[in-house]
Amino acid sequence: MAIRPRNTRNVAFNMASFSDLVFLLLIFFMLTSTLIAPSAIKLLLPASESRTMARQTTTVYINEDMEYFLEERQVDLDALQSGLIIALQNETEGSVVLRSDRNVPVQHIVNVIDVVNTINNIYKTKHKVILATQPPR
User: Residue 114 belongs to what domain range?
Assistant: First the structure.
């Protein structure tokens, strides 16, 4: 006579909890990937191998249509100066990051540098302009 245990072990693997975990991970990565938006204005930045990191104060964009944006608000040169004065009013040595499309003529970049230099001369500050680039491919 063979003695059999009363509790038999079931060796079948239950996939229900695994599919729940995969579903939750999928939702997590979908939500976090939509939160990452480094720049809302689409630009093709010029390529460079130099890597200079600075404390960013404000960002100015120039798109391929030669339109100026302060952060994400479209402005002209006069409004750019008044907007930068407001954005930099509590800083004495801030950085203005210039994100310009690679097809923009140099004169438009110089216009932004002139605006920042004018603010520096008027308010006796030391703000600098940093041209944003992307790594070469």
Answer: 58-131
